[in-house]
Amino acid sequence: MSCPSKSDDLVFFVNGRKVVERNADPEVTLLTFLRKNWILCLTGTKYACGRGGCGACTVMVSKHDPVSAKIRHFSMTACLVPICSLYGAAVTTVEGIGSINTRLHPVQERIAKSHGTQCGFCTPGMVMSMYTLLRNHLQPSEEQLMEALGGNLCRCTGYRPILTSGRTFCVESTGCQKKGTGKCCLDLGGNDSSSLSRESDICTDLFVEEEFQPLDPTQELIFPPELLRMAKNPETQTLAFHGERVTWISPGTLKDLLELKAKHPEAPLILGNTSLGRAMKSQGHFHPILLSPARISELSMVFKTSDGLTIGAGCSLAQVKDILAEQVSQLPEEKTQTYRALLKHLKSLAGQQIRNMASLGGHIISRHRYSDLNPILAVGNAILNLISEEGTRQIPLNDHFLAGLASADLKPEEILESVYIPHSQKWEFVSAFRQAQCQQNALADVNAGMRVILKEGTDTIKELSLSYGGVGETTISAHKSCQQLIGRPWNELMLEGACRLLLEEVSLPGCAPGGRVEFKRTLVVSFFFKFYLEVLQELKKLMKLDSHHYPEISDRFLSALEDFPITGPRGVQRYQSVDSHQSLQDPVGRPIMHLSGLKHATGEAVFCDDIPMVDRELFMVLVTSTRAHAKIISIDLSEALELPGVVDVITAEDIPGTNGAEDDKLLAVDEVLCVGQIICAVVAETDVQAKSAIEKIKITYEDLEPIIFTINDAIKHNSFLCPEKKLEQGNIEEAFEKVDQIVEGEVHVGGQEHFYMETQRVLVIPKAEDKELDIYVSTQDPAHVQKTVSSTLNVPINRITCHVKRVGGGFGGKIGRPAVFGAIAAVGAIKTGHPIRLVLDREDDMLITGGRHPLFGKYKVGFMNNGRIKALDIECFINGGCTLDDSEQVTEFLILKLENAYKIRNLRFRGRACMTNLPSNTAFRGFGFPQGTLITESCITAVAAKCGLLPEEIREKNMYKTIDKTIYKQAFSPETLLRCWNECLDKSSFHSRRMQVEEFNKKNYWKKKGIAIIPMKFSVGFAATSYHQAAALVHIYTDGSVLVTHGGNELGQGIHTKMLQVASHELKLPMSYMHVCETSTATVPNTIATAASIGSDVNGKAVQNACQILLKRLEPIIKKNPGGTWEDWIEAAFEQRISLSATGYFRGYKAYMDWEKGEGDPFPYYVYGAACSEVEIDCLTGAHKKIRTDIVMDACCSLNPAIDIGQVEGSFIQGMGLYTTEELRYSPEGVLYSRGPDEYKIPTITDVPEEFNVSLLPSSQTPLTIYSSKGLGESGMFLGSSVFFAITDAVAAACRERDIVEDFIVKSPATPEQVRMACADRFTEMYPPLYFPPSVLATALPLPADPLLTALSPEGLQSPASGQSCSEGQGQEPALLHREERLLWADLGLEGHLYPSPTAVVTCPPRDSEALQAKRQKTAARSSGYSRRAEFSSEPSGSPNLPRGAVHDPSQPAPQSKVAPLRTSLSELYQPQWERRSA
């Protein structure tokens, strides 16, 4: 058929408004259209990642389903939805459901009033996910709520309040029944001695649920009648939309689709765009013609037969999930084995938005190596029904299809019409397994589908299918292994042989995609072991044989069968109530909602890139280095400048003033120092044109040496950014001589990406005269941006005005970097005379900006046998990247804070910042404290292990107890610290839970629990007085309204809210009189960065000062007319010519540090806290579940308990991410691999502890701060380490049971890979076999039969009869011998040669028993380090002994893996340890 040459009209609706797009461009996404269409301008839908991985751009798309004849509502990520796919659809954005100017929707109201919004950038997406859920389920279950929010990320809140708001819509669950009592069931505690037991002074409610408006479904937007008519009388003609480069063709019938596919065989079919869209964006894939089968109803049909289920290829994964769930509920269990396995993976596959968009056919045809469904469909004997103009045919979804073999693949003109999935049968067992970095919305490291059919009435294998994803370029089927196992009984011998065969067939080279090779190898066999146990468990139900015919599963092994459930967090938030005499209109100390909360929830809060396009605006895109260390030979801009729409390219030569610092250039000159360093910038009319132009810029490099990436390499090359920082007290050498024991260890802490939801962005608007510029920028430090732009342009500072309305998250990442982007954009604005908008894509933001400093620390600790630490020597190295940035200050703060809560008389702390060829790392929440203090707490754990005591006992024994001085001679009282510690012990019921954990661990071999409690002494502020000053400007207008301006920036921490609370308290006015406009350098000059947790402190003092000045001026008027109103007083003041404007100023806290003397008062005050966390780990997969966390934080007198508790929860979850899931991975060339939410996993809603309790310590005072409050922005970050040490505790329990010697090497984050490999067992020690050439043979040694040896050969090996011998000359090929057996035999004095003979095994005789025992101990000690820890690098590890993320060059010799020796045969592990020992 012919394709229309003219574009058709694209008709759809947005928020009830008809949209007719006459020139629809297939390359334009819904997100771009909503935000940039000059008529709509719907900027509530946010751009955050562009990959559909964060949920910030979630909208609801409604369509008429022709099959069910119902209107269906789907949450979708607008960044992946092409507008051409919306023909006949209704789109609802956050602006369409409610507004602060008309009527709020209950979802918007509740998320704001429940304090579920901080920076607010993610809030519209959260709102739309919940709204869509309620449109489909008026009273959802909690499980549905968790599922709906699983695809939305939040970096600020910690998720708990978001889920709390959503839970108000849910049906009553089995959880807390608060009604009737007014008290939560979790609001229990310890004994009456606790200061928190004064329940009359303690509040647990942060909002009043009864005030929420009810949900009224009759008030929702209806589906447009016009679209309904279109759907009921569908247009069958083919629609075509022609863009500049791409044509979108949407046929109306299957016949037309097949004709088009025959005419355009290379054109891909596009439905959800979740795979193709990402490939086109990040991999540069291009297709001139796209075929959309969205209107073909035949592709969405579902057929049920007596033997199976046929699902249309066009069905979304969400629809597939519903279809399978219905089948499972209707059919007998024996018929739904495959369906249950698919359902298991569909629950965790991506987020709800992606499942709503992605199609079953697209998922299958994409054949991603990490596909969660293809391994199950492959083992389930799924059939693909293909169709073309020539007819229909069927092909199996097997390993040949998945490998892309032409003989088993679709022909170019064919399409996938449907997928047939047969029912399972009796004696057939199907299971699915997956392990990812986190539980939900994460690509699997390894997944598997496994299926076995046993001969009826027996345990003999009749048919076996095993498929794995994540271990190769595509899904891999272990066909050979399965064939060799057919006919064998389902028992231990089969299992051992199967594991060997699997590792041989499913082999991973050192350069396997995604790295993590040893971990993946281990998962291959660990999954099969789980499958083995599952089938045994099912056999119990089916078989009536005696127990000796098949292995019994020990009760201690049953936990291996259980997956961790996804449950919503619950908990209690406690804070001290305000004094009963406090005025009701006085907001200080009350849980006031965030000022912008409602605007966040309606999408009406304006962020930097939400500012409408200004006249003549141009777009800028940065060009960055692709080399880590190289000389720039030439830059050819000619091709780029010739492209349409390109206006100019900005280089260093265009800078009229200073090009940054000598060692930190804004734009590179002559030399680049890292991948991602900015070289130049393209300015064009649109962002698309600018991005096209950067591909045409040709830069010639000459590589330079050395290239340094890791801390180890920097130490080796003596590459440092600044001098060593050192603090020392006591006589450490003498103390080491007098202690009972000494332990030395290492700690490795990986870096962390800020992952603020709003990427770096700036809008520069040049004015018509005097070289003035208005700069709208997302920054924590507008004054720094102002100064940098001034020096770059060589104009006075007073010509530059920076405006900050609000920032979508900062965490330290928007202190220094925005000045760089602002300056480059300003150069572009001055050179072109146009306004310049610069918005970084997520990938570029993560590549360029740097993050938290990775750390390598070495410690030496001396202690007495009772656990008292007498000496501690710590040396730290941080990876600063290629320029200094804040690395020197981070090193200083790290050293100053290392002691944490402990008084140790003899200390030596040293720190260096390493210079490497990576992007410069910078400030990050906690500023060195979260990395450094992990070393200190690891020392405590090591001491506890050596003393045979519990870590909490060592912590308590060594804590500060009385008023004392720190290592830098600053005096402080630990009273509040000890109160936090004791309250946390009490409120968490720590000691009783410790016993419960130990009891659980005795009863479970493959699951272990751990519990840890961590104290904290966190120093607040900068170590310099000048950085603590602040100013404010308060205006009172003649109508009585008050405008408050101050030098702090709203980052989500609620600083504007708190400032108005201060002004309200001081002026004795309701907050409704107050307003904050923005932070501007023209209003409050010379401001300090909003950082170091003191923003509210110092700016609050300045606002207080301004208000007090104004009140003093008004005093005579008020005394003269005490009965007058505020408005009367203000009018009188104006008439009497009294100034109603005042500047408030706070000179700052005194703070200084003398590094020469090693002493000072660097910090104004401390924040104390403690956290207790309990986790459960799966020793077979490395996964963990967070069971409970209790936090007690010293907030003194909180200005706003809701905001402060939100800061504590948010920072805790962010810290938890640092220590558990967030892993930066680099290539060997220094390219950051983890540049988006797919590869870099921040915590999701399913990562929050099941029980999450936060208490603000009451009755605490500090006269220094505003109203005796404290800054809590950063302190909770380190408390996330309580989860890390709970995992460590669980791992230690597993290691003790396995007799693994502690190695005192600590590596963070505790990813599933680290946890699994630390829990060393038989599976971690299995490796692909090596040929062991015959060399040394000796006299024969009779060996007992060992099933392990039997498993080494497919035919089965048997030990020789007593006295039998053989020689090398028998002419047989040597069999495969595994690395760990070879290592064991060598270490234990046994050398051998194994033949594939049923009779012959030759070994050397063993040495004497004492020597043998010594060898065993030595080998076991060595193995613990090898099996548990990868060789250190400051970035994540991919292949063994390579830097994190490294891909091994096949042309180079493969790095040798360190492997653990064989300690026990696999069959022994089937018995509980006490049984083995008794035997």
Let me know the number of strands.
52
| Parts with pLDDT < 50 across at least 5 consecutive residues | 177-183, 186-198, 1329-1479
Structural class: alpha+beta
Please state the overall shape, judged from the principal axes of the Cα atoms.
Answer: globular
Rg calculated over all Cα atoms: 33 Å
- Mean pLDDT comes to 88
Helical amount among residues, as a percent range? 25-40%
Spatial arrangement of strands, main beta sheet: 22-24-20-31-28-29-30-41
The number of helical runs is 42
The separation of the N and C termini measures: 78 Å
Strand content: 15-25%
Main β sheet profile? 8 strands, mixed
Compile the SSE list and pairings.
Layout: E1 10-14, E2 17-21, H1 30-36, E3 58-65, E4 70-77, E5 90-92, H2 94-97, H3 106-113, H4 123-136, H5 142-149, H6 160-167, E6 202-203, H7 225-232, E7 239-242, E8 247-250, H8 254-263, H9 276-282, E9 289-291, E10 302-304, E11 308-312, H10 317-330, H11 337-346, H12 352-357, H13 360-366, H14 374-379, E12 383-388, E13 391-396, H15 399-402, E14 415-422, E15 428-436, E16 444-454, E17 461-469, E18 476-477, H16 479-485, H17 492-505, H18 517-542, E19 573-576, H19 597-602, E20 618-624, E21 630-636, H20 638-642, E22 646-650, E23 671-672, E24 678-684, H21 687-694, E25 698-703, H22 711-716, E26 725-729, H23 732-738, E27 741-749, E28 761-766, E29 773-777, H24 782-793, E30 800-804, H25 817-832, E31 836-839, H26 842-849, E32 855-863, E33 869-881, H27 887-897, E34 906-915, H28 929-947, H29 951-958, E35 964-965, E36 971-972, H30 975-987, H31 990-1003, E37 1007-1020, E38 1030-1036, E39 1042-1046, H32 1055-1067, E40 1074-1076, E41 1079-1080, H33 1095-1120, H34 1126-1135, E42 1141-1146, E43 1152-1154, E44 1159-1161, E45 1165-1178, E46 1184-1193, ...
